[in-house]
């Protein structure tokens, strides 16, 4: 059995705020996961002209949320939040790693998860026990986050929404650094994607393992092609 959460959802200690403050830290761009080094194939898509303007960026990220890796991550996190079985948690972690479309994405998933775990354990040493069930069993960052959410009793919907926005923000940051869009355009795109993130979150809250899957072939192909791209800013 894995650790079980408290009966009362973890919330902010400040009156009028219902979101657990840890989420703002764990999903902040400044949390030392090293995510800034990865574009998840977007760099290749830009170099090939597949993504060339704001409309393309919005379409690319929207697909990742609705039908691709971000949507899968939300469901993996949700499954991790809802299991109380160590074996099931390990299976969810293994599934997350198996879903990576190529070597670079696999290495990215492993690196981000390892860095996330190390940073959480450094800032919150008492959380170390929550991860022990995954020792020597690879798992993605969303699965680790889901484990923390369950153990801490954080509201699942809050955590999933926060993760969705963090993942979208990461890809928008990559698009900015690739000079496809500017910062103002990025914020406009992000605002327009709110309904997409909300819909993906609602699906994830009640998902089953059989619901996981992707249909973003262009993203997967771009990620594979990036492995042999010689001029690059990103590691994926």
Summed up, the helix count is 12
Principal-axes shape call: globular
In round numbers, the mean pLDDT is 94
Radius of gyration: 17 Å
- Structural class, by secondary structure, is mainly alpha
Termini separation: 36 Å
How many domains? The number is 1
Q: What is the CATH superfamily classification? A: Urease accessory protein UreF
Question: Regarding CATH, which class?
Answer: Mainly Alpha
Task: Draw up the topology in text.
Layout: H1 22-26, H2 42-47, H3 54-67, H4 69-82, H5 86-98, H6 103-123, H7 128-131, H8 141-152, H9 156-177, H10 183-192, H11 194-205, H12 217-226
Helix pairs in contact: 3-4, 4-5, 4-8, 4-9, 4-11, 9-10, 9-11
Q: What is this entry, summarized?
A:
The chain has twelve helices and no strands. The protein has helices spanning 22-26, 42-47, 54-67, 69-82, 86-98, 103-123, 128-131, 141-152, 156-177, 183-192, 194-205, 217-226.
Architecture overview:
- This protein is an all-alpha fold and about 240 residues long.
- It has a single domain (about 40-225), classed as Urease accessory protein UreF, CATH 1.10.4190.
- Helix content is about 60%, strand content about 0%.
- Helix 4 runs parallel beside helix 11 (about 195-205), helix 9 packs antiparallel against helix 10 (about 185-190) and helix 9 (about 155-175) packs across helix 11 (about 195-205).
- The chain starts with about 20 loop residues before the first helix and ends in a 10-residue tail after the last helix.
